[in-house]
Amino acid sequence: MPPREACGVVGVSLQGRGAAPYLFRGLRALQHRGQESAGIATTSHGTLFHRKGMGLVHEIFSQELLDTLRGTVGIGHVRYSTTGSSDLENAQPIVVKVHDADAAIAHNGDIVNFDRIRRRLQAQGVELLGNADTETMAQTIVLEYGRTRDLEAAIRRACTEIVGGYAVVFLVGNRVYAFRDPMGIRPLVFGTVEGGVAVASESVALDLMGGKVVRDVAPGELLVLEKGQLLRTSTIPNSGERAHCMFEWVYFSRPDSMVETQPVYDVRYRIGQRLAKESPAEADLVVPVPDSARPQALGFAEGSGIPYAEALIKNRFVERTFILPDQHRRESEVRVKLHPVPGLLKGRRVVLLDDSIVRGTTLREIVQMVRGAGAVRVDVRIGCPPIRAPCYFGIDMKERKELVAFGREEDEIARVVGADSVRYISLDGLITSIGLPGEDLCLGCLTGQYPVEVPEERHRFQKTLAEF
Ligand code: 5GP
Ligand code: MG
Questions:
Q1: What domains can be seen in the chain, in order of their start residue?
Q2: Which of 20, 26, 215, 340 could form a disulfide with 10 if both were Cys (CB 3.0 to 4.6 A apart)?
Q3: CA separation for the pair 83, 47 (Å, rounded)
């Protein structure tokens, strides 16, 4: 089982100034996309400088360390932890040889035909060191490059072999090659910064590098950044169909980012307003599960006229509980992470807003906590339709049987999480709130209909995570 990643990437090309401080700021802005490890690679006059480590960006990169990462061009990555693969080897960027030169690559996403691609590479005598998607992708490109000696053609060709959702930054010599999967499943934006150009998983990284977004990288677009400029762009052959991951708006991206020109905050606010219309509740207070459901709760409060209260306080120094490796730890950590404001909930009927339910573990704990603080009724409203199928394109939800909504309807889910009611936003409500046509979204985890065929999807259904 290869590591599965939902991470963040950044790349810059500058003139007359060092890339490392920009990459550092960009990565810090993307920290929410992955807290397990982070890395930066730069080049200067043909030499690659490269550092990665476990933990948060600012814990890994001191000023002294940044000073050793020389050059005006580089890439960076933050990695999201997934069960059982928590080690430095999986940290990115990874270093690869593009013939004689050292290069570095980092990516966000998943390759669905990973096994097939790997077997093909091995059959052609390519030695694979680790088992990561990233290396597989790099070696596929390198193999093509060996044939044509045209790196851009090699990337485009490799991308027709690789099936999946990905956003990639590839540092070769003094250039950054940045590209996005042909349907634009994973996000990537392009913009300008002082002294050059940059790409990043989210617009907020451009903002925090002191730059501004010019546009989203188009699905299947390959950008070449050189000497502080966008040198060229070309297109990976594609069907023209788009499938942007709806979960970026629902949960994954920061609310101060724009994804496909739609401000994430506004989308979440509209989700809340829409929920208030679709599934009203008689209540005294609207309470968000912080941080991710605040805009939704504000929208719900506005839509329903019920007062908003921050009755659950989050300890900001606790890591995201979702990514803790085992269920038991996840359960006890929820209580360390969230705590009710004494008195606020006592005797009140509460509408609890959350962005999404995956396994239901977090919510069950929270509902209990809210009742424990004296709430007399807890009605739960969820800003994402039921997640009933796995994601194969970069979000960490892998097995149907883990998903609380798999095979269960709302009333049964309410019983599982101990709420008086649970109501999800409708699919149409979500699509309308995002503001893009439904055909342009990947809704695979909601509908089980994936934008591309997932090999052996049926078969995977029967198996546990460890087996496939
Ligand atoms: P669960 O239902 O699995 O206990 O947790 C769901 C909650 O975790 C959601 O409300 C959401 O805030 C958060 N969440 C959902 N998906 C992800 C993910 O892929 N990564 C992380 N870190 N958190 C997630
Ligand atoms: Mg949450």
A1: 7-245 (3.60.20.10), 263-441 (3.40.50.2020)
A2: 26
A3: 35
- Token pair recorded at residue 271: 């989700």
Inter-residue contact 200 to 216 (CB < 8 Å): no
pLDDT tens digits, one per residue of 202-255: 999 999 999 999 999 999 999 999 999 999 999 999 999 999 999 999 999 999
Residue type, 342: P
* Extended beta strands in 174-320, E state: 175-180, 189-193, 196-200, 212-216, 221-226, 229-235, 244-245, 258-259, 262-263, 285-288, 312-314
d(Cα 24, Cα 13) in Å, to the nearest integer? 14
* CA 378 to ligand 2 centroid distance, Å: 17
**Which of 322, 328, 333 should be mutated for ligand 1, with most atoms under 8 A from CB?**
322
Pick from 441, 403, 438, 440: nearest CA to 424 = 403
Residues 7/90, Cβ–Cβ less than 8 Å: no
Neighbours of ion ligand 2 (CB under 5 A): 292
Buried b / exposed e over 222-260, threshold 16 CB at 10 Å, is bbbbbebebeeeeebebeeebbbbbbbbbbbbbbebbbb
> Tokens at residue 258, please?
């724009």
Q: How many residues comprise the chain? A: 468
Please report, as a single letter, which amino acid is at residue 280.
Answer: P
Q: What is the pTM of this model?
A: 0.94
pLDDT of residue 460: 54
Check: CB of residue 233 under 8 Å from CB of residue 176.
Answer: no
pLDDT tens digits for range 344-366: 999 999 999 999 999 999 999 99
Report the separation in Å between the CA atom of 357 and the middle of ligand 1, taken as the mean of its atom positions: 7
Q: Which ligand is nearest to the CA of 359?
A: 1
Q: Which of 138-142, 243-247, 372-376, 461-465 is predicted with the least confidence, judged by mean pLDDT? A: 461-465
Residues 400/245, Cβ–Cβ less than 8 Å: no
Contact between residue 230 and residue 176 where contact means Cβ atoms under 8 Å apart: no
Catalytic-residue membership of 384: no
127: tokens are: 């030695």
Q: What span, in angstroms and rounded, lies between the C-alpha atoms of 270 and 198?
A: 30
